[in-house]
Amino acid sequence: MIEALHGTAQAMVSRPRGILAADESIGTMSSRLEKAGVPATAENRRAYREMLLRTPELHRGISGVILSDETFNQKLDDGQDFPLALHALNILPGIKVDTGAKPLALSPGEKVTEGLDGLRDRLKDYVSRGARFAKWRAVIIIGDGLPTRNALRANAHALARYAALCQESVLVPIVEPEVLMDGDHTIDRCAEVTRAALEHVLAELDEAGVDLAGTVLKPNMVVPGSTSGQQASPEEVAERTVATLRAVLPEALAGVAFLSGGQSPEVATANLAAMQKHETPWPLTFSFGRALVDPALKAWHGDPTQVAEGQQALADRVEPNSAAVA
Ligand code: 13P
Fold this sequence. Notes:
alpha/beta, globular, eight-stranded parallel β-sheet, 10 strands, binds 1,3-dihydroxyacetonephosphate
């Protein structure tokens, strides 16, 4: 059981591959489709995900794909279930299992991620249908007096309970404490909050007995706030991010797979490439959503005759990220 967890976790972060996050909730995916001029139907969400995962040679740069519950329950045009189709493509199927970030009581402006009730039974079901790893995203907001210690603790505790339940079911947990880019904060403030968030998460994982060698961490990169007017070079982002991770993460961790968090595809790739110049005890790879799929969505825009163009746009983003971590 432990060997299976370790093997899956290592495969998820094995060079030159990263993880494709295609697990947007129905609400988020619907608004992204509408923005691209595509009617937000269940069929269009399904067709979009089928277009992505049928990209030729996707497995060369992608070790795993994170699915949402809706997609996990859908079928490809040929009748295959999505998770089994991924196995056939030599890609590990993952499943987002949280039910979203909700307002944190008595803590205005902050959120806590829900989804623990009934999670053990849901995980068993996902595993029986082919899932090999899971994801849970916590959201940490930087603002006036934020984040509070309460928000850091509540989110870290939920992440640890989720991760322990995953490992009990022989699923590798992706542990994602995302410090949002939104705001006018400095890169120093992002580094400070990212470090605090990771310290809380690692302490809770330890208390919960979670095996780090069977865990993949999905953190944000350390960057200035999106409305700060500041721009950091890839070298600075890499240096600040690696220093923050080094200060907190034990060597035993299987690997780190960054989210893109609203950075442009090119900037996310340049930052990821700059990180590789630093020596770290854990592989540093990507688990991007928007930075991989935004160009593909634009190129496809719901037109069945544009599937190959959408797939080429995805391949054109996978390739440089894969090269960056090779
Ligand atoms: P982005 O790379 O678009 O931030 O998405 C990654 C993800 O999985 C967020 O939960």
